[in-house]
Amino acid sequence: MRGLSKRTTKLGFKVLRLHYSADPDKDPKNPDGKKWYAEARKGMSEARFNQEYEIHYDALGGQLVFPEFDESAHVVHYSTVEIDPAYWTVWMACDPHPRTAHAFVWLAVNREGEMVVPWSWWPEGERFTVKEYAEKLKIVDNSSLNLRPYYQLMDVAGKSFNATEELSYFDAYRDAGVYFNPAKKNRDLSGYDLINDALKPVPFMIGNEEKMKPRLTILGKCGDNDQLAYQLKNLRFREWKGNVTDKDPPEEPEDKRRHLVDCLSYILLDGPRFVDRQKQPSTFKPIYGSLGY
Q: Is 277 helix (H, G, I), strand (E, B) or coil?
């Protein structure tokens, strides 16, 4: 049967492999198949598509996690963007860890869905208490950067990590006056796929001329954004070792310096969007209707 193959593992297990070519409606040579193929490729790198759909077990080994990233296109000068709260909504995410510095990323999104990382912070090699982290976050909130977040996320693992014997990181930050919501899990590295998709250039119009630019950019020289750019540029999947057909693919980035990237993935998993604060319904409800208060 076309598209169906089998292999035998070294332990003697028979494994059937079903390729999409077994379905005539998914044949890229016909109109329906061409449409399906284009949809299936969206948001996936070449290596990931080859692994998931072409059944190439070693496709990700040693490959860049973010092949779409290009410093010349994605890192822009800080003077090119002004984060005015009237036109941008800010998301912030935290990646806490009991043994290394906590990481933080701020992302702003406008009405057109353009996203920019104006600031990030990862004090590598330094250790702070949660109270000290919180104090520094409040300094950013109250600065002239206009980065007061509309929504704040934290890796859900912060519920199992203990800031103290009694408190999780969620509780400890809350007690310090910083409130985080649990981020969605980066299952199957879906958050990384969203980053790659946002890095891809898309068309936009300037007058009658069509140009291309990515939806996601990073302001260079701001906070630890250069470190974020380094992580996006250099992060790779682990190399294969041994008989690759007898084990599952190592879908784990090899470099542990990915805390800022993880923060960015938590934000994109949440579907960041522009929120017009001026049009937000008022939550004020007068106790005495006739008096208005």
A: helix
> Measured in whole angstroms, how far is the alpha carbon of residue 64 from the centre of its chain?
15
Handedness of CA 250, 255, 259, 265 (dihedral sign): negative
Can you tell me whether residue 90 is helix, strand or coil?
Answer: strand
Tell me the sheet residues that pair with 120.
Answer: 105
| Distance set, CA 203 to CA 79, 106, 196, 214 (Å) | 23, 25, 16, 9
Q: CA 240 to CA 244: how far, in whole Å?
A: 7
- Counting the structural domains of the chain, the total is 2
Pair (130, 17) in one structural domain: no
In a shared domain, residues 231 and 185: yes
- Is there a contact between 120 and 179 (Cβ–Cβ < 8 Å)? no
pLDDT in tens, 196-226: 999 999 887 777 888 889 999 999 999 999 9
pLDDT digits (tens, 9 = 90+) for 36-69: 778 877 766 666 666 666 565 554 556 788 989 9
